Amino acid sequence: MGDRAAATDRRKALGGCHVSEYLAALHLMLKGCRIVALRYRTKLGEIDIVARKRNLAIFVEVKAGREEMSAIDAVPPTAQNRIRAASDLWLARQRDYAVLSKRYDIVAILPGRLPRHLPNAF
Fold first, then answer.
1. Rounded to an integer, what distance in angstroms lies between the CA atom of residue 100 and that of residue 98?
2. Which InterPro entries match (predicted)?
């Protein structure tokens, strides 16, 4: 097992990825968003956070890293497509689907800094 894979396994074992998601959710709530789902899983993919702000559905990918750009680069087009597919399933299950706008954001969790919210990231 490589160093990177071992570090990922240790972080998951300690719940590090969940901590990042909780920090991101708290940050979004402080910005006026209502969190409606954490780790929303479908057969098509997973969305880290689903938030709402009025008639806007916000689908958020949370990335932890040392630099902001590495967090953004960690969401390749294939991941973006899976998130979009999962978001379409989530939207289809909402009563007010017809009036909802949608947005795809990234929240970067960086060591020793406040979370960085990147609206319309993809």
1. 6
2. Restrct_endonuc-II-like (IPR011335), tRNA_endonuc-like_dom_sf (IPR011856), UPF0102_YraN-like (IPR003509)
**Encoded amino acid at 97, one letter:** Y
Round to whole Å and give the CA distance between 91 and 98.
Answer: 9
* Distance, C-alpha 70 to centroid of its chain: 15
Query: Which of 122, 116, 113, 121 shows the shortest CA–CA distance to 31?
Result: 116
Asked whether the beta carbons of 105 and 120 are under 8 A apart, the reply is yes
- Structure confidence by residue, pLDDT tens digits, 25-37: 999 999 999 999 9
- Residue 48 φ then ψ, to 5°: -65, -50
CA–CA separation, 58 and 20 (whole Å): 17
Which single residue is written with the structure tokens 């990042």? 20
pLDDT value of residue 62? 96
In this predicted model, what pLDDT tens digit does every residue of 41-70 receive, in sequence order? 999 999 999 999 999 999 999 999 888 888
pLDDT, tens digit (0-9, with 9 covering 90-100), for 12-26? 444 456 899 999 999
Question: Would you list the domain boundaries of the chain?
Answer: 3-118
